[in-house]
Amino acid sequence: MPSLGSKKDIHKSDLNFFAEFTASAAKMTRMLGYGVVVGIVVVALIVGVIIWGIIRNSIAQSKIDELNTILNSEEYKNLDAESQQLTQQMNSYNNYFYSLSQLRGQVDTTRSVAVNLTDLIKSSIPSDSYVDNYDINQNTMHIEGYTFSYYSALNLVKMLNKTGLFATPVTLTVQRVDPSTVGTVDTFIQANGKVNAINNYYSFIVDGALTRDIYLKVSKFLKTNDQKVETLAVDKPVPLKQGDPYEVKDVAKFTQSNKTYTLTEVRINKSTLAPDTLKGIVDANVINGTAYSTEGTIEIQLYYSLVEAAPEEGGNT
Questions:
Q1: pLDDT at residue 48 greater than cutoff 70
Q2: What is the rounded radius of gyration, in angstroms, for the C-alpha atoms of the chain?
Q3: Does pLDDT of 192 surpass 60?
């Protein structure tokens, strides 16, 4: 008969077999315990974050409620009406300032005639000539007179051009006067055979454009959505000479009282610029030009619209 071994050996083999399962089960139990602990920690963290968010929102809400209570108090409830009233007053003052600036601009841009101009004319008149009439204003000079020599009128013009008071050379018109209008025909030839000077009698007219400054005026306005116009600012007039280049910088945006305005329209001497020209000005953020005006002023009017502030991010959760 085959030998099956002792009974004691069989029991030891069985114990070794179950011991492997017991160790594996213990290991799995430990791993499961670790997982449970980690899960509890994660859940605790999530709950903590939720609780912290609720607490934070509660604190923020309490502060909001506190601010609302303050703003609704007697001290603050009329601030909005007062703010609107102050805004209206500021607009009125701005418009008043614009009117005053316009009047001041008219005074500044009114050119006074050179006090020595009449003396210069007097000293330039040749001895055989005289001035019958003259008119001088802030822009032009007009002289009418008579002379016994054609060249004396030319000399008068030459001397006037040397004064530097004229923007362009003065013009001269000379015309011989009909002797019959100023004397007797019988006296033309004197007894000694000489020609009476009255036969060479000329009238002359001298016209000249006086030199003057051209004033650059820049004004800024707010054009609201309902097309109302409010004055924002008026710059001091800048004197320029005829033909001088000028430059108005930083026109694309304008900031005043913590409010930002963007350029939407440009008028130069009451003429509205085309949209393409306006876009070029906004992109370059500058207006360039050459000083030329028969009126003595270049008036640039800049119209802006208010840039609405972006709403703040955040809110109640």
A1: yes
A2: 48
A3: no
